[in-house]
Design a protein that fits this description.
There is one protein chain. By secondary structure, the protein is α+β, with helices and mostly antiparallel strands. The chain folds into two domains: about 5-125, Ribosomal Protein S5, domain 2, CATH 3.30.230.30; about 130-195, Alpha-Beta Plaits (2-Layer Sandwich). About 30% of the residues lie in helices and about 40% in strands. The chain contains five helices and eleven strands; from the N terminus they run βββαββαβαββαββαβ. The protein has helices at about 30-40, 70-80, 100-120, 140-150, 175-185; strands at about 5, 10-15, 20-25, 50-55, 60, 85-95, 120-125, 130-135, 155-160, 165-170, 190-195. The protein has a five-stranded antiparallel β-sheet, sandwiched between helices. A four-stranded antiparallel β-sheet has the order 9-10-8-11, with helices on one face.
Length: about 200
């Protein structure tokens, strides 16, 4: 699966029925990193500081005093809907005197983050793996051609008496086709082992 990662912190503001909603989305490395950044960005003078974060299968959210399910969950849904991973989102609300109702709150919190992520600078994260490959000397050039073809890189190469040991890195979704192709070219003599994901 390819996810989008934020490149930098992005902020936006929405005024909805006189309430000011400030969205802050930021890249995170761990849940500790999330809480450290949350502390930096939240406004303790605001009416509410509602948040959510997503890191692979780990996620959390908080309504910070808003009715249950009207803030944190919609923020998380906006993160997931935009296809982001390793991201934290905070929405700071300054109450403007007009109640929005539960549906209005959910739309305001989720919508603030959705608009933020739509405008935020991002890059695609492509999961990769390291492979150890042992081949006969004669197949060295073919290996490098296949690495180019399947968006792989050679990390290390050492010549041993029985051939060449290669440490390579490949996008995970290309490993199966790369392996088939290398086995075809080497008549099944290549020894391929995934060593790190």
């Amino acid at each position: 699966m390819t996810d989008k990662n934020l490149i930098s912190t992005n902020t936006n503001e929405e005024v909805i029925k006189k309430s000011l909603f400030i969205g802050v989305c930021f890249p995170i490395q761990s849940n500790q990193d999330f809480f450290k950044q949350l502390e930096q960005h939240q406004d303790l003078n605001a009416t509410h500081n509602c948040w959510a974060y997503r890191m692979a299968n780990e996620y959390r959210f908080n309504d910070d005093g808003e009715p249950s399910g009207t803030a944190g969950k919609p923020i998380l849904a906006a993160i997931d809907g935009a296809g982001f991973d390793s991201v934290g989102a905070l929405v700071i609300r300054h109450y403007g005197g007009i109640k929005l109702g539960t549906g209005g709150l959910a739309r305001a919190y989720g919508g603030t983050v959705a608009k933020n992520l739509k405008a935020a600078p991002f890059q695609y994260y492509i999961p990769k793996s390291d492979l150890m490959i042992h081949i006969d000397f004669q197949y060295s050039q073919i290996l490098h051609q296949l690495l180019n073809q399947f968006e792989g890189v050679s990390l290390d190469q050492s010549f041993v008496s029985s051939g060449v040991d290669n440490l390579v890195n490949l996008p995970q979704n290309n490993i199966e086709d790369f392996t088939k192709s290398l086995n075809n070219h080497t008549k099944g003599s290549a020894q391929i082992k995934v060593i790190q994901t």
